[in-house]
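Fill-in record for SUR7-domain-containing protein.
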Amino acid sequence: MAITDFEFLRFRKKKQAQNGGGEGVVNSTEEREKVVRDEAAAAIANVEVDLILLLTRKQWRLIRISSFLYVLSCIFLLLVEIGNTHNKPVLRDSYFLKIDVSDILPSTSPADAQLVNSIARSLGIHDFYQVGLWNFCEGYDDEGITDCSKPQNLWWFNPVAIIMSELLYGATIALPSEITTILKLIHIVSNLMFSFFLLSILTSFLLIFLSPLVLLSVWYSYHFVTFAFISALLTFAGSTTATVMYVIFQKVITSQKELNIGAKLGPRMFVFMWLGTVFSIAGWAVHLHLAIVSRKKHHATKKDREKKREEEGKSPRRCPQLSLPAFWRRREARRSAGEVVIVVED
């Protein structure tokens, strides 16, 4: 590294003033080399400090991105949670499955359709039933949703029990065995799906505010990668479970041609569900990248600390090890000195 004569003379004058006005004057070549070494060390230290500051700014930028992604994930998962709970805009159109039973009593001609519809209503059957995460809603094609059941924990959709409970006393409808058989599976899977979505929104909400903790230690960053992965896994498991279950349920219901029951999936609910999943997985990917940045920063700060210890004349700090017994330390000292150690066992 080049140094100008003016800078060298200024540095020499400063050193002479510190040494008491010219005492201990050293060879100019040695002084010049010392100044060059000092400037090189200062330049390296400045580069390391700039690297640490750059990595810290990058960490904060990644933390903001991850928090924003988890905010979006919470918003869409919240829409999944409250979808179909009340007869209000957005909520009334957010459902997993809509079952159409308006043609469960077939009419022989279009003129008889109104009469058949009146008979079905007199029996207590609604035209459609919408399925949500906490409850179901029912209504008529010409009136819309007329009523929604009360939200319940670990609720599951049992169409047989719902339709039978709404029929007038003595009225019955024969349902195929395929529908009653799949209800046991729906009960188990619905409880798992409910738990997955509830835990996923809780973990995503916590990650919004706890993400800055990764700045405290590189180990916190590793733990947050695991926590973010669990949150993304729960969200993905809930979305996959809901998709598979209701697609199969739709196929089973519509395959029974003799019942004249229609079923369709709710596109808005599935869009909300999978958008929340995508943002949760993206948040985990950001935390994974954040762990890599934290590791680089950890190594940079470690090198800076070791360099300061060398400048202070201290020995480099080693990884913490278990303290050895005194006799074992003596053996290690002799072995490092080149002595032959003979161990005689009793």
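KEY FINDING: Residues 61-299 form one domain.
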